[in-house]
Fold this protein.
Amino acid sequence: MEHARRFPTDPKEYKLCEEVGDGVSATVYKALCIPLNIEVAIKVLDLEKCSNDLDGIRREVQTMSLIDHPNLLRAYCSFTNGHQLWVIMPYMAAGSALHIMKTSFPDGFEEPVIATLLREVLKALVYLHSQGHIHRDVKAGNILIDTNGAVKLGDFGVSACMFDTGNRQRARNTFVGTPCWMAPEVMQQLHGYDYKADIWSFGITALELAHGHAPFSKYPPMKVLLMTLQNAPPGLDYERDKRFSKSFKDLVATCLVKDPRKRPSSEKLLKHSFFKHARTAEFLARSILDGLPPLGERFRTLKGKEADLLLSNKLGSESKEQLSQKEYIRGISGWNFNLEDLKNAAALIDNSNGTCHLDGVNSKFKDGLQEANEPENIYQGRANLVASARPEDEIQEVEDLDGALASSFPSRPLEALKSCFDVCGDDDPPTATDLREQPNMESTSPMQQFQQIENHKSANCNGESLERSASVPSNLVNSGSHKFLSGSLIPEHVLSPYRNVGNDPARNGHQKNTCNRNRSGPLFRQMKDPRAHLPVEPEEQSEGKVIQRRGRFQVTSDSIAQKEVISRLISSIEEISDAADASTTGSSQPSGVHFREKELQSYIANLQQSVTELAEEVQRLKLKNTQCIYNASPKITYCIFVSNQEEVLQDDGAAEPDVPQDDGGAADPEREVQAQDQSAIGKDGSEGEEEKREGVLQAGTNAKEKRIRKANSKYMGPEWAV
Ligand SMILES: Nc1ncnc2c1ncn2[C@@H]1O[C@H](COP(=O)(O)OP(=O)(O)OP(=O)(O)O)[C@@H](O)[C@H]1O
C-alpha cells in the first residue's frame, strides 16, 4: 500500500511536472515523489490568500489524513512550504468525472457508467457519514478517477464534522457548497442540516452525470438558489431522459426530495435496485477512459476554452450566464457568489415583524419598483412573460436589487428571502402554525388574493386616513405573520409617490429607459401539488389557466396575478417609505405617518443596539479564541486548530434525534485541546468568572501552545508540530 510508505515532507523531494487542476482555493499539480519514484498529486494552497479560512484548511487536511476508505482521496502527508501548504495525495490520472465529460461525453454518460460511478461515491458517503462527516460538496468535479477505473471522492475543503468544536453539533448552519448541488435546507438555513444534504447533492450529481451538466448550471448563483427553492425538484422526466431506466429515475427522485427527512440515508440508498446496473472498475476504464488524452493536456484545453469565453465576454456584453458556464467548466465550488445580491434581497425584509425597510434604496431599485408599479409596465411585463416565458425566466430578476439596502445583512439570508418570496419546500405540508398565521393565504388562490386587494383598494381610495389605509386588508391582516404579504399596504390611489413625478425629468427619463425590461415571473411558489413531478393536463389546473408550459414548469394566469399582487405590494411599501420621507422634510402628513415613523425609528434604534451588543460579544469570543494564535507564524501550526467560532455561534442547538451521538467517533484534536482548557480554567462559564478566565487563558498560553503542538503532531504528523 502506497500510503503505508513514508512520504517525505521536504518540498525538495518532489518534482512538479504540470498543472492538472485548479479550484477556488488551490492549484493541483502532477508531481513525482523522487525518493519513492511514485507519481503523486500535490494540492497547493496559498495560505496568505486563504488566511481567513484556515479553519477550513485545517478541516480538509485533518479529514484527508484521518479517513481510510478506498473510495476517498486521502492525503499521504502535508507540510508547509513558505506561505504555501502542500497536500500530497494519490495522483488520479484520469482526472475528475467532470473533466472527462467535458472532453468526451458532453451530453453525459451511459447508465451503466453512471451506476458504477455513483455506487463508488455512495460507498464513500456511507463511510464518511458513519464517521460523522458531511462532505457538502459532492459533484462530478470532485469524483476522481484513476487510469485503472478506480473512483475516489475528493475535495474535503468544505466538509464538516458533525461533532466539530466539541459541541456535538447535531445540525449545521454554515452556508457552504456549490449552488447547483446545494440542498434546499442548506440554502434556507432555517433548521440546520445534516448528512441528508449530501444525499441531495448526490441526486444532483446523478443528473449531472446523465446530462453532462447539473440542473440550472448556466445561471448565476442567486438565480440557482431561487430556482432550487421555488421549483419542483429536478428529475429525469424530460423527453431526452427516455433512455434511462425506471430504477435510475426512481433513484434520482428518491434523493431529490425537498424535505431532508424523507430522503434515505446513504446506507439505505446503497441498497437501491439501480446499483444492480453497476459494473467493475475495468468496465469503467474501458468505456470512458480509452483514448482519453493525458490529464495535463485536457486541463490546458479546458483552460483555453475558458480563456476564449472570457475574451468573448469582454468583447461582447458580459452575460452572467456565460460567466457561470465558465465557472462550471472549471468545475469549481466557489462560484462568484454575489453576496451583495443576497444582502440586498434579504435586507428587504425585517424578519422580526415583516416590516419592509426601503430607506436608502438606490435609484436603480426605486426605479425598478416604479416600473413594476406602472400599470402599462405590468402589462408590458405580462406581454413579455407570455412571449418569452421559459421555465428559467420565471425567476424574478433579483439581481436588479443591486446596491439596495446593504446595511443589515441577516445571518440567514435565505431565511429572509423565504419571507420575501415564500420559498418553503413544496413538500412541506403547512403546519398548524402556518395556517393560523395565514388564515386566508392557504385557502385563497392568488387570483382571489389579487381580487381582494383590488376590493380593498377601491374601499380606501376615497381618502380615508393614511393610517387606516396603511393597514393590511382583512384577508391579509395578521399580526404574527412574518410573510411579506403581512406588510403594510396602501392602495396606490391614496398616495402614490409617482403621481407627483410628472415634472421630474430624471425620473421620467429613467422610466423611459427601463420600461422595456422584463420583470415577469412569479415570486410565490406554486401552490403545493403532490403530483408536481407528473405532467399536468390543462383541465387539471386548479390554479389558473396555463399560458405556457415547458417540462415541469408552467406559467399560469395566476402566476401573472401573483406578479400583479407583488407589484402592488411593492408599490404600497414604496408609498409608505416616501410618505415617511416627506414627513421628515416638513410636509404635512396625517399623524398616523408620524406615529409609524417614530415606531420604525425606535425599532431601528433597538435593532442597532442589539447588533452592537452582538458584535461586542463576537469580538469577545474571537479574542478568546485568538489567544492560541497569539504567536502567529507564517506556518499555520497554531492556527490550525482554532475553532470556527462563527459556526458555533450559528448553531441553534436544535437537537436532531436521528443523528447518532458522539461515541468517540473520529478523533478530534480540537476537542481534546478544548477539554484540557476546560479543566484548566474550571467549568464555570458565568459572567463573573470572565476576567478570571481571561487571566488564566493568558497565563496558560505557553501550556496551550505545547498542547496544540502535541495535538498537531499526534493527528497530522510530526511536521505539524513545528
Ligand atoms: N488527486 C488528484 N489527481 C488528479 N487531479 C486532481 C486531484 N485532486 C484534484 N484534482 C483536480 O484538481 C481540481 C481542483 O482540485 P480541488 O477540487 O481539490 O480544489 P479546490 O480548490 O478545493 O476546488 P473546488 O473549487 O472544486 O473546491 C479538481 O477538480 C480535479 O480536476
